[in-house]
Design a protein that fits this description.
The chain has 149 residues and is of the alpha/beta class. Helices cover 45% and strands 21% of the residues. It is built from four helices and five strands; from the N terminus they run βββαβαβαα. Helix 1 crosses helix 2 and helix 3 crosses helix 4. The longest helix has 24 residues. The chain is globular.
Length: 149
């Protein structure tokens, strides 16, 4: 399985959590949190990470409704992600992130940190969880033909 450098994005109205994967494509780690300014400003900040990490693909979390439909927020995120992908000339894949923000908050509470002071950290962790979910799904899809451990 060829290595793929992907960037995980947790897109919010004020911030975008950014995560990358290690060289093995097994582990996602939070990289940064971008404070959103304008569309072009957001693109430029993401572009820096894309160039630095030679990213080939964007993975964006979509907050599906509990009944599996795309609500207003998810549609806004999808619209933004499409524009971003077009601006960066990269493909984009979506992953259902219904529970990642909750999971990220739980991890931070577990580390005894204040949620209100760590909003950026929550976004970063959520982005890492989104990317991790995608990496795991991709890996299990690829283990059908000869298991690489």
């Amino acid at each position: 399985m060829e290595k793929l450098s992907a960037l995980g994005l947790d897109v919010g109205s004020k911030r975008i959590g950014v995560a990358g994967c290690d060289g093995t494509g097994l582990i996602a780690t939070g990289l940064t949190t971008i404070n959103r300014t304008s569309f072009n400003g957001d693109v430029e900040q993401v572009r820096e990470w894309v160039e630095q990490r030679q990213v080939q693909l964007l993975v964006v979390g979509l907050p599906y409704s509990m009944d599996g439909t795309l609500g207003f927020q998810a549609r806004q995120i999808k619209k933004f992600a499409k524009r971003l992908a077009k601006a960066l000339q990269l493909p984009v894949e979506y992953i259902d992130e219904r529970l990642t923000s909750v999971e990220a908050e739980e991890l931070i509470k577990g580390e005894r940190r204040s949620l209100s002071q760590n909003k950026g950290l929550i976004d970063r962790k959520a982005a890492a969880l989104i990317l991790q979910q995608w990496l795991d799904a991709r890996r299990s899809a690829n283990t059908g033909s000869g298991n690489q451990g």
